[in-house]
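Model the whole thing, not chain by chain.
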Amino acid sequence: MSDTPSHVPVKFKMPKWVRGPQDFVGGVALMALAVFALWASSDLQGMHGFSFGAGTAPRMFAVLLLGLGATITLMGLLTDGEHITVYAWRGPLFVSLAIVSFAFTIRPLGLVISAFASFMISALGTPETKWKETIIVGICLTIGCSLLFPYALGLPLQLFPRFLVQ
Amino acid sequence: MTELFSNLALGFGVAFTPVNLGLCLIGALVGTLVGVLPGIGTIATVAMLLPITFGLPPVGALIMLAGIYYGAQYGGSTTSILVNIPGEATSVVTTLDGFQMAKQGRAGPALAIAAIGSFFAGCVATVLIAVLGAPLTKLALAFGPAEYFSLMVLGLIFAVVLAKGSVLKAIAMIVFGLLLSMVGSDIETGASRMAFNIPELADGLGFATVAMGVFGFAEIIRNLDHGAEMDRNLVQQKITGLMPTRKDLKDSFPAILRGTALGSILGILPGGGAVIASFAAYTLEKKIAKDPSRFGRGAIEGVAAPESANNAAAQTSFIPLLTLGIPPNAVMALMVGAMTIHGIVPGPQVMQKQPELVWGMIASMWIGNLMLIIINLPLVGIWVRLLRVPYRLMFPSIVIFCAIGIYSINNAPVDVILAGAFGLVGYWLTKHDFEPAPLLLGMVLGPLMEENLRRALLISRGDWSVFLTRPLSAILMAMAAFLLVLAVLPSLRKKRDEVFVESES
């Protein structure tokens, strides 16, 4: 999009011969993915006789994707297209961090700590967070989840840290 | 005919037990509750709520899931009308006239008509499923691996044709999905494919995990791009007078009929019929209206037709799933996931071996629609209040719910991380104008396609022409080719036009 605010640095300055950067980069990434899949499935058995081996279908799809990626790249070179919009870093970073922290803490620390911590981390994802209300909502949500999932729904979730329970 | 009635009677017998009625009600309520939250579509809602059905018996679980599905869809239209944010693709067109009606203080009638239209469409679609179920199951028995493969190709081509934007990119997304579905162990040899010795990947990527990533997390991340205070011009007027006037009903009745008919037909086709159904219904209404300029300014037909159409399509899309075992869209694929967890393999056998399951679910769809109309009209006030919750508090809550939801499917922390990774992938995809819906469909159909392709080629002793020599398969393939050409042609022409315009200037 061209209406990018001027204070945000445009990271993706493309050379002039790329007329549709969005398609160009998208296509290249798909090609890279296809090559990666080809490499990852290279140890698998191929066709034997007229029956498929384990690697036949993955390689077939990877080659297809390679072709499609190449075509999209070519379109990006030959036709005018959209520019790449600038990526925000704050939202993706903190939401991902919250997810990762949840994954790592749920087993050892239990739902209560894990959910509350992740709530707080993901709240960092926007500068508009007001901490007082966020903490209150976080506590309420944690209590709600602790009642809902293990008790009301009977899911096997541990609530408290393992070292405290044992 | 008597068989039809006895089937429906069996179904209602199953669905009308207090427990199942309760499950249906809870499903519809919770589905609406989550569906109302802006930025969470049907797919993310169903994926998120999947774990809450695990502890139930199979029939109850499916009834509840079906309830969640309709609830989510209805919740989506509530958001479209009140906040102008479509919860999902199917309710995009509802925003056009629905929000205008709300601005004119007619949010009540708009919501009521959406519910009535959905209910009517639901009734028709329920009967249709009951009528078509048995004959299509018989047809399914004539299907060999070659036919199955061709049908799935047709389904994927449909998905491509219906995806907005570039045909090429949609195909690329499908192939990406097919490739993702290859991760895990090979069905025949058991060889581990592209799993990199990660034990959690040995079983393949969980469908719910990927769905939650690209539809749930990616959506949140994308919403944060615009700042947490999204442009949420929630209708501030108090909603008074829920009931539509007599004129409203008279205006919208034919629109509901047309929307239902269109939606029912498009829903049966594999490949995400509900989206195109709502668009097609809206376009049709606008075309045949005496005064098309009313549309986009709060015409009640513009709410009635697409809402009936998408509900009809949502429901008839159970037909390919129940009769052929092919999930026609991402939500149905999640249903398959739920069924597999309960040890049910959808397809023609289910209809014969577990009729109470299938007919119970069909009957509960009708009940679910009825419940929606009853519970939602009085509850609109609550939904509105929910919509006033600022996004800065909402999104961390959604993140936590999604994370717990994914974790509890397999009790696997790795799944949560994978979903997060797919959230970033989904964010990247939207940045590059790739649609994630075809990706999911490809992922769902991948294993089925591979299996049938292998079998077909094995039976034909490696002869690829089998797809064209078997008549049924040939017809399906011809339809797919025709559709593809149809889809490519206009865009080709448009592209060429653009080139011409440029070279002239």
